[in-house]
Specification:
CATH topology of the largest domain: D-Maltodextrin-Binding Protein, domain 2
Structural class: alpha+beta
Oligomer: single chain
Strand content: 15-25%
Shape: globular
Distance between the termini: 35 Å
CATH class of the largest domain: Alpha Beta
CATH superfamily of the largest domain: Periplasmic binding protein-like II
CATH architecture of the largest domain: 3-Layer(aba) Sandwich
Largest sheet: 5 strands, antiparallel
Number of strands: 26
């Protein structure tokens, strides 16, 4: 649930059978006044004890050195990950350290990084972090409590709008000791707030005192993390260098990680161009999101000769929701029946057969591929949660299991489209002279599908054709990244593709995704513009869940409310990572449950690199 922007492909780690140390004892029972220790989890089930030396999914003896070359897409004009403006450079988050670091083989546990210990009472009404004496920025200046307090207050007031939602329940940050900062929370049950504060990046108050925090900048920022910006060619490439005397390198949370001396990101116009560059050896690793590209376009001499490896790495990551999003701020999409009807326009079965090579399954939950997804009819426990909100929820929440329309796979399923026309008629839309119009005003239904990636056109255009069969005029428009980002941040669109990633421990970030307050906040993730008192209440219940069973129950209830709101046309997902790499890397034998560990747990295998150079005649 970390909202600090990281390298988009920082998805995973890997499992070393040797183990990482003794299991952790559970925190004291609620009767204890205050829990204090080097780590904290959502419900007290820490995997790693105080004596652990490294996470199990890393190779603690991984060699350091070499260069990793990665792709970026389109351009960048900003190195500050914490503001709304600009297009962020891939990898900019690697420059900054956070108070604590998460583990990739636990649902929601954090271990000390900048902070040596964390304290919190049984009711988690506050949290205090004591900083490590050795923690310092890249210029050698110490990380202080004043830096932490300034960072928190700046992000909440001047940072990206998502921070206001994320830290909404934090009332104050204050220095209470030479190296200790205390955060106090609003009354109410919010168990994850100490963990959320553990994710806080720490910025230098002195450095930013002479700079405008809210402006985009290509000046390499002062950080404290494992990498710093070494060089850049604005909009074209950026190179990060591993900090040789990185203060945090010996810590258990960093052992076996951050193994490349340099990471270079070269930018390409689109993913198709990037793939051709990868096959020609211009960069080292490509994480593939397109089923067509994966199935058809990797073949070539390098793959056939075994110089490039193609792998599908399974994962147990919650897949969240990806879909074509209705902007309900637009009058034509305010009626839930209209949104439900238009969902029939996307023929997943045809798309999966003809475009995706059968690689995907249809997404039918905002928490897909996890125990948090709603299935069947509501359980008795779910009904207890939902019943007080019955008057404000769609009736289907209580009586039906949500399923997206299933087509005959023809690309033109008349039964689904006729059902859609019936729903549209109920909502006051009729077909006149081949156009779908509002029966009362005569206003025709017409809208634009906004894209920033041309590869989505082959998915959106057949859907637009089905909309036209309903009498709807639709324009599919692809724009450049800066224009797209601006329009997204200001909700200036009719429909677009969005994805909401989810963790196994949803909480405060759900406010930024779905709350009424976020609907009017530029830059928020409430892209659909959802304003529902029932959804707001369910979000509060998820955040205040006192234990894991109640979290699962309440999240499933929220899932049902969102699904039957028909805010998106659900897309599809896959439970593997598709990754292709030039054969010069080592990585731990198996990934953890919830990540793949690239690039932070990979390394250059000297023997493989030498063999590759000998076979290709080029240094890679």
């Amino acid at each position: 649930m970390n909202i600090v922007k990281q390298v988009p492909v920082l998805l995973v780690g890997a499992l070393l059978p040797s183990g990482g140390g003794p299991a952790a004892p559970a925190p004291p029972a609620p009767a204890a006044a205050v829990w204090k220790g080097p780590a904290l989890s959502m419900y007290g089930d820490l995997k790693y004890g105080p004596g652990f030396t490294h996470f199990e999914y890393v190779n603690p003896r991984a060699p350091k050195g070499g260069q990793l070359r990665m792709p970026g897409i389109t351009t960048f004009d900003n190195l500050n990950p914490f503001i709304l403006k600009g297009v962020l450079a891939t990898g900019a988050g690697m420059v900054f350290d956070t108070l604590m670091a998460g583990s990739d083989d636990e649902p929601f546990s954090y271990y000390g990084l900048v902070a040596e210990t964390v304290e919190t009472p049984a009711d988690r009404s506050w949290a205090a972090f004591t900083l490590r004496a050795q923690a310092h920025f890249h210029d050698g200046s110490p990380i202080t409590v004043e830096d932490v307090v300034w960072t928190f207050e700046t992000l909440k007031t001047r940072g990206h709008p998502q921070y206001r939602a994320y830290y909404a329940a934090v009332t104050s940050a204050e220095k209470v000791g030479p190296r200790t900062v205390k955060f106090t929370f609003k009354p109410g049950d919010n168990r994850e707030l100490p963990l959320i504060l553990g994710q806080l990046p720490v910025l230098s108050k002195r450095y930013w005192s002479t700079r405008d925090f809210e402006k985009t900048s290509l000046e390499p920022p002062l950080g404290s993390g494992p990498y710093r910006v070494e060089s850049l060619d604005p909009g074209r490439s950026i190179t990060y260098r591993r900090v040789p005397d990185y203060w945090g390198a010996p810590l258990p949370v960093n052992v076996g990680r951050n193994n490349f001396d340099t990471i270079r990101v070269d930018y390409y116009r689109d993913f198709t161009v990037a793939l051709e560059a990868f096959k020609a050896g211009a960069f080292d690793v490509n994480i593939e999101n397109s089923a067509k590209q994966w199935a058809k376009n990797y073949d070539g001499p390098a793959l056939r000769q075994g110089l490039i490896k193609k792998e599908q790495i399974p994962n147990q990551l919650p897949q969240g929701m990806q879909g074509f999003v209705f902007n309900t701020r637009r009058s034509i999409f305010r009626d839930r029946r209209v949104r439900q009807a238009l969902t029939a326009g996307f023929d997943f079965e045809w798309s999966n057969q003809h475009l995706f090579y059968g690689a995907y399954v249809r997404t039918d939950s905002y928490f897909a591929n996890s125990e948090l997804a709603a299935t069947g009819l509501p359980s008795p426990d779910e009904l207890d949660v939902l019943a007080p909100l019955r008057a404000e929820l769609p009736p289907e929440v209580f009586t039906r299991e949500y399923r997206p329309p299933v087509s005959d796979g023809s690309g033109y399923d008349r039964k689904n489209l006729l059902a859609a026309l019936a729903l549209l008629a109920e909502a006051g839309w009729v077909v006149r002279d081949g156009r779908l119009v509002n029966a009362a005003t005569g206003e025709p239904m017409t809208f634009e599908i906004l894209l920033d990636d041309p590869s989505w056109e082959r998915i959106a255009l057949p859907m637009a054709k089905n909309f036209e069969r309903l009498g709807v005029r639709v324009r599919v428009r692809t724009v450049d990244t800066p224009q797209y980002q601006y329009r997204l941040d200001h909700f200036d669109f009719d429909m677009l593709v969005s994805i909401w990633g989810q963790s196994l421990s949803p909480g405060n970030e759900q406010r930024d995704f779905w709350s009424s307050a976020a609907a009017d906040t530029p830059g928020s993730r409430n892209v659909a513009g959802i304003k529902s008192r029932a959804v707001d209440k369910l979000i509060d219940l998820v955040i205040s869940a006192p234990d894991r069973p109640s979290l699962v129950t309440r999240t499933r209830a929220l899932d049902r409310a969102l699904l039957w709101g028909h805010y998106v046309i659900p897309n599809f997902h896959i439970n593997v990572h598709r990754i292709a790499s030039w054969d010069k890397f080592g990585r731990p034998a198996a990934p953890p449950k919830y990540a793949i560990g690239f690039p932070d747990t990979w390394w250059i295998d000297a023997a493989k690199a030498a063999a590759l150079q000998q076979r290709t005649g080029a240094s890679r």
